[in-house]
Write a structure and sequence with these properties.
The chain is of the alpha/beta class. It has helices at 17-30, 51-60, 70-73, 76-84, 132-143, 157-167, 214-222, and strands at 3-11, 36-40, 65-67, 88-89, 103-107, 115-121, 147-153, 174-178, 189-191, 194-197, 202-204, 236-246, 252-263. The chain has seven helices and 13 strands. GO terms for molecular function: 2',3'-cyclic-nucleotide 3'-phosphodiesterase activity.
Length: 267
């Protein structure tokens, strides 16, 4: 029997509970058969004091797994949260001493150890990591999964594409879904039941830059005492994602992009 997974884009900021529920309801109405929900919370959880509240909102309202990237794991509060929430995962290819886990067994399924969610990072000069190719290969050898769904973040888009190419020869299907660009890409590929998508997209206000209102981003990056005029209210939230149907052998039978507009606060 096939299983359905709804994989949402990067959550750009901590959303009020009622707004998150509206986003989730709209997504689930489009795909009511989805039994599991995954979201990238890197930008939303980076605000230290709000991290626990944000995660509680997500896990208590339908999310099964939250992945993190560099902006969140650099915070002390996020490191504490990783020790508390087993369904919160950070990049697997962080140094061995990093807190938390880099993978989570989503379901027991098929002939292998089940469907796993794995987080990886491409790395950068500011945030070096272990080799993502080696980390993924070692994980597969250790667990012999039915399938691996990879959330890969980081600025190097070539590494994202190369990871999908390199993993195509693994005996266990690997599905590579990028995150963190701030916009959904239209390069979804499905070959021999293996999915590749450079970036899933976002959940949040479309006009945000790196999860921040443009005026705040401008002031922080340009160090100007007076920001430009504030942007208008959200009006609506963009909810990007992809709906996956996995066969018992771990291959993707179908993948459908999700592109929704949901009324936000201030409307």
């Amino acid at each position: 029997m096939a299983i359905e997974i709804l994989w949402l884009g990067s959550l750009l900021r901590d959303l009020p509970v009622e707004v998150w529920r509206s986003c989730l309801a709209a997504a689930c109405q489009r795909h009511p058969g989805a039994g599991s929900l995954v979201v990238n919370g890197n930008l939303a959880v980076r605000d230290g004091p709000l991290a626990e509240r944000c995660l509680a909102t997500l896990f208590e309202n339908g999310v099964d797994v939250v992945t993190l990237g560099d902006q969140a794991v650099a915070r002390v509060s996020s490191r504490r949260a990783l020790e508390r929430w087993p369904r919160l995962i950070r990049p697997l290819n962080l140094p061995p001493a990093a807190p938390g886990q880099g993978a989570f067994a989503l379901k027991e399924y098929g002939s292998g150890e089940g469907v796993w969610i794995v987080s990886l990072m491409t790395g950068s000069e500011r945030f070096p990591v272990d080799d993502p190719f080696d980390a993924l290969e070692a994980f597969g050898r250790a667990h012999r999964p039915t399938a691996v769904l990879v959330d890969i973040s980081g600025p190097d888009l070539e590494v994202r594409k190369a990871l999908a190419w390199r993993a195509a020869e693994y005996p266990w299907p690997v599905h590579v879904l990028g995150s963190g660009l701030g916009v959904a890409t239209d390069d979804l590929g499905l070959a021999d039941g293996r999915l590749t998508l450079t970036d899933v997209g976002i959940v949040g206000e479309e006009h945000l830059i790196g999860g921040l209102p443009p005026a705040q981003w401008w002031t922080l990056r340009r160090h100007l005492p007076t920001p430009p005029p504030a942007s208008p209210g959200a009006g609506y939230l963009r909810v990007d994602g992809v709906h996956l149907i996995l066969e018992p052998n771990g291959r993707v039978a179908a993948a459908t992009p999700l592109r929704l507009k949901v009324p936000g606060w201030g409307t």
